[in-house]
Amino acid sequence: MNKALATGIFIISTIIGVGVFLYPLILPATLEFANPLQGDFQQSQAMTMVLLTLTIGVLLLEMQGQETSAKTIAAMGLLIASTSVLRFIEVAIPGPGGFSPIFIPIIIAGYVFGARFGFLMGSLTMLVSALLTGGVGPWLPYQMFAVGWVGLTAGLLPQVENTFGQITMLAVFAFIWGLLYGLIMNLYYWPFLSGGMAETGQIMDGFRASMASYGAFYLTTSFVWDLTRAIGNLVLMIALGLPAVRALQRFRDKFQFQVVTP
Amino acid sequence: MKLTFNTLAWVIWLSSAAILTLLMRNPLYLIILLLVARLVQNACGGEQASLKISLWQLSAVIMLFSIFFNLLLVHVGQTVLFRLPRNLWLVGGPITLEAIVYGAISALILITLLAVFMAFNNIVPTSDLIAIIPRALTNLGVVILIAVSYVPETLNQLQRVREAQALRGHRIRGLRDWQPIIIPLLVGGLERSMNLAETMVARGYGATGGQPLAARIRGIMLAGLVLIFAGWMVSYNNSLIGWLLVLSGGGFLLLAYYEQGRKIKRTRYTFVRWQIQDWLLVVISLLPLLLIFLPFPAVHGGSITYSPYPLAAVPQFDPLIGLAIALLAAPALLVELK
Predict the structure, then answer these.
(1) Is A262 inside any structural domain?
(2) Which string of b and e fits A206-231 if b means at least 16 CB within 10 Å?
(3) Average pLDDT score over residue span B287-308
(4) How many domains does chain A contain in total?
(5) Which candidate from A5, A42, A124 shows the least CB-CB separation from B143?
(6) A68 to chain B: nearest residue by CA?
(7) Is there a domain that residue A261 lies in?
(8) Which of B37, B123, B138, B152 is deepest in the core (most CB within 10 A)?
């Protein structure tokens, strides 16, 4: 019963999360049933932000509600502190383009400790670093969701024994997320810049028009920026990934060690 | 002594101002809200700046970007300024004044949203934000607390590792040279986490907190999520019912948090009292939303939306709504009066 409920929570949260990110692209189709002149478009903007904040609240409660040991809590806290330091350095000394060193520790932690740990580490790293750098903003729930997904999907990767295969898989994964992160994060402010399709009649052009418009916007404004992030992820993972994975795997075994008394 | 407000009251102020910003497209109301946010930040905020560049520099970039993008992509409106050849992909067609106005309003929404969050960041200290983490999230609260507390220590550790490696003749020439710095930092952090975990257990951590979620609470959460999702879908046909469903879903989630939090004991060094000015802040924060959502005959709720299409005109203005938005500046007035 409990497992079925938890699965239901994950499924609906994922549908809401994916829907909120993708709704700017499917907005024209949905608004055919709405009345744009009564501000339905604006209401959906406010609603998606409320929706995502509430869903993050559900996911955090659900994920921490599973059995969590003091070792896991302490390790997560310290790993988030280390990753937040990287974000701190990034804010003080910005790297080229969209390069950010925070993705690598989140991917590696998710890969070694599992999807739940990865999601929480991703989300909470964004929260903690936002608190520390004064970066609490309307983008925070979106960032928490997107970076949470980075850690969660890393936890779903297969455990590869071969060293070359492992680092290749992680490097490609980090590269893909470098691009994907920008692609989906842009969607949160894209509706503001999408030219009021709901009100202009261009709405009737539908999904293809939205995609073409977003594609043009993405290619002209973000692609190079995101490519820098993706290449940075790839290079960092190749340079530092393997020893970091080995170090975390050693500690994972230590964390799981328990003395069971009869 | 400066008049202060409860952190929860500020969270309600922030939520209301952010939702209002996203609901409105009337530039007159948006300008009032932008001024309110700046006024409140100046009166109630601290010295520290939350961004490296000023809000006005950022605003100029957002404004230029939004107008530029909108005028090139949207070819609707009656006031045609000039035309680009039709065969140009996406950008070809008439360039209109209405598209420029729409782009400027979109930018104004983003700028107002930024100003509201900047004010909040500037007013509420990090420690106060951590203090309001709900009891139900006790484990994650501890994770956040550990992370925030250990950031300065981790920075010191980074410095110590760099110095130790430099004494051994290590120099950073390429990315791989970061390995002898990053890996000891990571391992050091994890070693500290082992010690910390043992200390936590020795002091009784886990004796009261970290209760697994009961099926009943998961059921409440699932019901809340279903209501939220249904509200979102319904809102495209009937926004009032949609919002009511989302709010009732939010109520279910609050209930789940309350039920889970009841099992956990938490003590505080200082108890922050809820005072009369906090009630005032909550009431004035909710007032503009009530005026917009409830069908008061004297209020023209429709004036919050404005579209420059097909022909740009002066937006409508309801003084009651304008006044309700201006009232969000009440904390600034109260602080100045005190």
Answers:
(1) no
(2) eeebbeebbebbbeeebeeebbbbbb
(3) 84
(4) 1
(5) A124
(6) B210
(7) no
(8) B37
